[in-house]
Amino acid sequence: MFTARDSVEIDADVDAVFAFLDDPHNHAAVTPRLEDVRDIERLPNGGKRLSYTYRMAGLGFDGAIVQTVHEPNERMTFELRGRLTGTIDLTFEPANGGTRLTYAATYDLPENALTALGEPVVRRFNERQVRATLDAVAERFETGAA
Q1: Is 127's pLDDT higher than 90?
Q2: CATH number at residue 37
Q3: Which element (helix H / strand E) includes 122?
Q4: How big is the chain by its Cα radius of gyration, in Å?
Q5: 70: number of CA atoms within 13 Å, CB side?
Q6: Confidence (pLDDT) at 118
Q7: Sheet containing strand 98-108, strands side by side
Q8: pLDDT above 80 (res 146)
Q9: How many domains does the chain have?
Q10: How far apart are CA 143 and CA 125, in angstroms?
Q11: pLDDT at 45
Q12: Can you tell me the mean pLDDT for 99-114?
């Protein structure tokens, strides 16, 4: 099991940041190596279920994501299903006139991917991915692309 957690302050209000990340296509735009989101279905809790393709170390992983928690302007939690399993938890808090976005992830990788890469490499990779995703979200708001 691998964990990664980081935060960023974004110069936009919580409503705007939450709305941006409430669209699964935007996750694909800001998450490195997330190549595709498809088959998006809205759930009764306000969240979504979708299929995705993620690429790591030359390996493509197809799976499904189910948004188990959808608390507008506060929190989103996603369960990863398929070859990659785990959870992603996003929290949104007002901070300094903007938003503090925290990304916390717990992943289990297929044994062959872990064996091929080694635990320290996978851990650093996950930490860099979380940081890169947060930076990409913040940059979208800085450039007005959100």
Answers
A1: no
A2: 3.30.530.20
A3: helix 119-142
A4: 15
A5: 16
A6: 62
A7: 2-10, 98-108, 85-95, 75-82, 59-71, 48-56, 34-42
A8: no
A9: 1
A10: 26
A11: 94
A12: 79
Place of tokens 């450039």: 143
Is it the case that residue 137 has pLDDT exceeding 70? Answer: yes
What was the pLDDT predicted at 128? 86
Mean pLDDT of 90-113: 87
Cα 133–8–12 angle (5° rounding)?
Answer: 100
Burial 56-75 (b: 16+ CB within 10 A, else e): beeeebeeebbbebbeebee
Nearest partner of 134 among 88, 94, 83, judged by Cα: 88
DSSP category for residue 43: -
Tokens 């300094």 identify what position? 96
What domain range is 95 assigned to?
A: 2-142
Q: Which residue has the tokens 């302050």?
A: 9
Whole-number pLDDT of residue 60: 79
